[in-house]
Amino acid sequence: MLGDVANVSPRYLCLMARETAAQLRARIDQLEAENAALRSDEPVDAPKAKRRSWGWTLLATVLIVIGALLAPIAVVGTFINLTLTDTDRFVAAYAPLADDPAVQRFVTTEAVAAISEQVDIPALTSDVIDGIIELGTGPIATKALETLKGPAAQGIQSLIESKVGEFVASDAFSTVFSQALRVSHSQLVSVMQGNPDGVVQLGDRGEIGIQLAPIIAEIKTVLVAQGLTFASQIPEIDRTIVVAQSDLIPTVQVAYNLAVIAGFWLTFVALAFLIAGVLVARRRSIALIWAAVALALSMALTLAALGTGSIIFVSTVSPGILPSAVASIIFATVTGSMQASAIAVLVLAIVVAIVGWIAGPFSVPRKLRGLAQSGAAGLRDAAEKRGLTTGRVGEWLYRQKVLLRVAVAVIASVIVLLVRPLTPGLIIWTLVVSVIVLWLLEVLQRPVVTVPAAEEL
Length: 457
Fold this sequence. Notes:
This protein is mainly α.
């Protein structure tokens, strides 16, 4: 064998060594190019984009600011369009008020007051006792009966309050309250739309309330069933509990009608401005982060405005019309959906800002991405050494990695845009699942290695 090697021409050995060195050099260059592409997330031979003028930055800023300013209006408009214009949604949102103790006490007080206005209990009690006296009683009995007029009237009044309170605290009240909400909702829509034929018209002081008629009718039935037959004398009462009084109601009417017109689409208009601002920017990765920050700030201001509005609403509503505790509960119920939406969009904006930073051309995110890719590559190599490989499927995943990443981003965006209600939990879980899917795709893909063919001698 040594003799065969000795007989090889020195020139041939030199050519073989040169060819091997050339192959190694080519392979090293290819690996370095692939590594650079993975670190920058850009094609190896991607041409450098022509830098845009500062005018594009100004345009991007204007578009992003407009989108951020429209976002709070979109939150309110979506709430009005989905809740206040739909009776079923309205009832579902506000029916739980019937279970609140403060609201129950308020309804009980108003119902008893309405009954007392229609039935003079002291006079009724006095007439009954006078009728007994006229039947013939002695002086002592007559005096005793006269003395009982006051306590008897108070006792009947207390009995009515007790029975009304028991009814309002029962499950049956929830059903009646829902019916009252349906009546009140149609009236509220008439008020907001300025319908001249509506059952309830907007008062001079901007009063809006809940219809008591169905509640009183049910209470009347309960009282008669309990043996208080005089309750049958209670006529049909058309009375409304005032739950809001504000000189700004006419302004609210205008805002209501504008929100109904804009409705659900205002959300997409605001989103379109934000996306357009990112697309026209000179540095889109930075513009994406600033757009998310602007959206987060607008939602933070929205939450602050709702908190301030609660204080103003409770302080401006007269306690004689609506107790402060009930006013606070009603305001929290009305704005609860808007507050939840604002918090969800705030979380979404923060998530987008973080994702934009991680995916951006910054040194720290590049190192993080490189670390994740190295970990996935190490896990993949360890599996292949043990005979576990994805084969051609992995090679296909590698070739289609850009398309698959875009697909994951699109699916996550559709979930966030279309699933309702939008909650912070939904946003966070969508992000977590997306990150896990992307990392699994990185592990399962199998980079295609191309080895230069040896030249024929």
